Amino acid sequence: MIQSIMSFFEQYSFGVCTYLAQKFKLSLSKVRMFFIYTSFLSVGMPIVFYFLAFFVLDIRKFVKQKRSNVFEN
Is residue 18 part of a domain? Predict the structure, then answer.
């Protein structure tokens, strides 16, 4: 049951922890645990950072997809 819950969250997560882990060459589980522990200690402030990072990453992905050559039609 726990494995199915973990796979659900990994499948539908926004990819912020994965991006940060790859960017800073850290373990993905350590980045996730950092977000979990700091969310409890600082009353949810990392959750706000997580969603802001999600929006920034999503906008970057959208801009990269929509960028095309000026001469293409």
Answer: yes
